[in-house]
């Protein structure tokens, strides 16, 4: 098979790399706080730490101004019970969040509870994200209808000009989710970082953590990586590290022909942080939790591409004959904040089979009141990251929401292919300071287990930054291990020593196939062990053949190694949990009992001398959420005083 690079070389038209390359050159940066990841959580962590008066360096694999899942924008600020219009108590709502992990908006009354949430992150979010939102406004982010564009819209309060989402919020029963103008949030955060003197290193991929003496499990004292434009090696020495990298959304599927990135997440979200904490010896939970990939795969549209879930608020769906479906998208009272609950979805499916509903379905934008259509199309869809691109593309093609229906792709594409999955919510074990089991390492945002969305990332990043800053004042500087640095340089630069072999796409595809075959919907001891063996074979046989011809391809190659480590974590955790769990979307054929009481616990895993070590933690190990939050935050100026 001829590769593009080989073709260009033969034709004599290979474009030159536009940056000077020096793989052997080292830069050493000394700082008090190192923030890894310049997304929403990372920027907030850097700002919070810098306001404490310590030196802060922020390292981002892309460009901080728009990097991360929230970089292009957001339309909702969720789980905000401390706002002045809220109908619920922040401490009580934190318990709801902890009992219902992974929810992106309010849960309807009587919704079934599930465990394995993050009580610490939930409590921080409910107590602090309104203060965080107001700080966002001070930085220049728009959080209100200041220009009176949407007067009269459902959920708008004239006194504050706040606009609330109708997500499971009929008649303003909760008023927890604010509609915001999030496309200007990330530029505002970068400006504030620069104003505070944060030393920003864009286009630098962090590949490994530095530990005292180079010892696995020891205190974290910095990190290493390389510039993905110039290839230069970067060494960051710090007193504390805040890890706010994203999760891994690219491990189950590579589809370069149809969708390439195949997700609405940033392409840089490849599990680098998990690989780093795994190799450093941190303890992790929920690594066995995976869910079917519900977003675009290249073969299926699902979310966002057609009228349906999430930001398409108040949009009534109709069938091909104009008949209204029992699918208002938002506001479900019996389960499911952003889509019909299983009972309703199944009733629609049966209605299709009986001829009661005619496919395809459509979102009836013209039938909406003008003000509500404008809110949904221009504010909700126009401010969200991916939907802004979709709506502008539709408009260029001639789509007019006041005149045209928008097709929905549910049912006509069949059910979701369950072998295409994504990791969901695993991460390092943390305490009430958001510190991991490794001294000196703090965790925030999507890197936390059972993480939330934009406001969760912002508030936990802000929290971790101030905790890390306080810690940095109490500890001395440490000397880095040159042996650890040399080993990391040899590992990450190995692909550029070769000029042929396997490129990153081939390795990514092999990892994806391994996950699809051996860790999909159904799991057994045999399948999981076969998958772990396949991962070991990839690591031992094919990784040594990996080659990269420029710093960008080197970055993609090292991302593959991150996914490889993450896959090994998933297999190890899946083997350790010998029970099925509906809450974790985890089903083992050889252990069919679902959520037996004896397994109502977190399974922990960590790496020790090349071997996965499993353990356990009790559910709700964080204790009394309100009492512990207040005990650890007595000096927090914005502490909630009660209503």
> Could you say which structural class the secondary elements and strand pairing correspond to?
alpha/beta
Let me know the largest β-sheet: 5 strands, parallel
Could you name the CATH homologous superfamily of the domain at 482-618? Fumarate reductase/succinate dehydrogenase flavoprotein-like, C-terminal domain
Strand content: 5-15%
How many helical elements? 15
- CATH architecture identity of the domain at 482-618: Up-down Bundle
Count of β-strands: 20
Secondary-structure topology with pairs:
Layout: H1 4-11, E1 26-30, E2 33-36, H2 40-50, E3 56-59, E4 76-77, H3 90-99, H4 119-138, E5 178-179, H5 185-195, E6 199-201, E7 204-211, E8 220-227, E9 233-237, E10 240-243, H6 272-280, E11 284-285, E12 290-292, E13 317-318, H7 342-354, E14 361-363, H8 370-383, H9 385-396, E15 406-408, E16 421-423, E17 427-428, E18 441-443, H10 454-472, H11 482-493, H12 504-518, H13 525-542, H14 551-576, E19 601-608, E20 611-618, H15 625-631
Parallel strand pairs: 1-9, 2-3, 2-10, 3-6, 10-18
Antiparallel strand pairs: 4-5, 7-8, 8-9, 11-17, 11-19, 12-16, 13-14, 14-15, 19-20
Helix pairs in contact: 2-5, 2-10, 3-4, 4-10, 6-14, 8-9, 12-13, 12-14, 13-14
Q: Could you describe the 3D structure shown?
A:
It is a single chain. Among the domains are: 317-408, no CATH class; 482-618, Fumarate reductase/succinate dehydrogenase flavoprotein-like, C-terminal domain (Methane Monooxygenase Hydroxylase, Chain G, domain 1), CATH 1.20.58.100. 32% of the residues lie in helices and 13% in strands. It is built from 15 helices and 20 strands. The protein has a 5-stranded parallel beta sheet, covered by helices on one side. Strand 2 (33-36), helix 2 and strand 3 (56-59) form a beta-alpha-beta unit. Helix 3 packs across helix 4 and helix 4 packs across helix 10. Mean pLDDT is 88; it is low at 103-113 and 330-337.
């Amino acid at each position: 098979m001829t590769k593009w690079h080989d073709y260009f070389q033969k034709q004599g038209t290979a474009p030159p790399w536009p940056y000077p390359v020096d793989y052997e050159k080292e830069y050493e940066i000394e700082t008090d706080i190192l923030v890894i990841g310049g997304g929403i959580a990372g920027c907030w962590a850097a700002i919070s730490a810098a306001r404490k008066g310590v030196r802060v360096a922020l390292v981002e694999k892309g460009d901080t101004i728009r990097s991360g899942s929230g970089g292009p924008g957001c339309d909702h600020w969720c789980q905000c019970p401390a706002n002045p219009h809220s109908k619920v108590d922040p401490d009580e709502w934190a318990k709801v969040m902890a009992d219902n992990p992974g929810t992106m908006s309010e849960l309807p009354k009587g919704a079934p509870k599930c465990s394995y949430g993050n009580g610490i992150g939930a409590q921080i979010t409910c107590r602090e994200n309104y203060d965080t939102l107001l700080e966002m406004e001070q930085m220049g982010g728009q959080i209100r209808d200041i220009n009176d564009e949407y007067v009269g819209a459902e959920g708008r309060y004239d006194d504050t000009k706040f606009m609330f989402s109708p997500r499971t919020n009929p008649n303003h029963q909760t008023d927890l989710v604010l509609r915001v103008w999030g496309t200007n949030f990330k530029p505002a955060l970068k400006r504030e970082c620069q104003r505070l003197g944060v030393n920003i290193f864009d286009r630098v991929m962090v590949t490994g953590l530095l530990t005292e003496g180079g010892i696995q499990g020891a205190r974290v004292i910095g990190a290493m990586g390389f510039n993905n434009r110039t290839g230069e090696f970067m060494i960051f020495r710090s007193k504390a590290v805040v890890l706010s990298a994203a999760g891994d959304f690219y491990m189950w599927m590579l589809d370069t022909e149809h969708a390439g990135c195949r997700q609405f997440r940033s392409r840089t979200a490849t599990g680098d942080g998990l690989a780093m904490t795994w190799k450093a010896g941190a303890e992790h939970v929920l690594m066995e939790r995976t869910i079917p990939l519900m977003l675009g795969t290249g073969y299926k549209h699902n979310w966002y591409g057609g009228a349906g879930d999430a930001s398409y608020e108040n949009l009534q769906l109709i069938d091909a004959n104009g008949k209204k479906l029992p699918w208002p998208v938002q506001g479900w009272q019996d389960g499911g904040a952003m889509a019909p609950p299983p009972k309703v979805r199944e009733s629609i499916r049966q209605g299709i089979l009986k001829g009661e509903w005619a496919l395809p379905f459509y979102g009836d934008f013209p039938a909406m009141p003008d003000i509500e259509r404008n809110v949904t199309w221009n504010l909700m869809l126009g401010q969200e990251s991916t939907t802004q691109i979709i709506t502008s593309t539709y408009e260029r093609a001639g789509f007019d929401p006041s005149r045209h229906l928008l097709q929905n792709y549910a049912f006509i594409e069949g059910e979701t292919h369950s072998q295409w999955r994504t990791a969901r919510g695993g991460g390092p074990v943390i305490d009430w300071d958001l510190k991991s089991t490794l001294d000196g390492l703090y965790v925030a945002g999507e890197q936390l287990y059972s993480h939330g969305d934009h406001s969760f990332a912002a508030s936990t990043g802000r929290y971790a930054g101030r905790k890390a800053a306080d810690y940095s004042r109490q500890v001395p500087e440490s000397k880095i291990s040159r042996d650890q640095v040399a080993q990391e340089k040899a590992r990450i630069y190995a692909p550029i020593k070769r000029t042929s072999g396997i490129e990153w796409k081939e390795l990514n595809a092999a990892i994806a196939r391994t996950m699809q075959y051996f860790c999909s919907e159904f799991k057994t001891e045999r399948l999981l062990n076969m998958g772990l063996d396949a991962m070991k074979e990839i690591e031992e046989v094919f990784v040594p053949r990996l080659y990269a011809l420029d710093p960008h391809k080197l970055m993609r190659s090292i991302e593959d190694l991150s996914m490889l480590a993450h896959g090994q974590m998933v297999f190890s955790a899946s083997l350790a949990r010998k029970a099925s769990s509906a809450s974790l979307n985890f089903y083992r054929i050889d252990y069919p009992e679902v959520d037996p009481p004896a397994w109502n616990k977190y399974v922990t895993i960590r790496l020790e001398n090349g071997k996965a070590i499993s353990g356990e933690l009790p559910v709700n190990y964080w204790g009394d959420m309100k009492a512990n939050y207040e005990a650890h935050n007595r000096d927090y100026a914005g502490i909630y005083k009660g209503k």
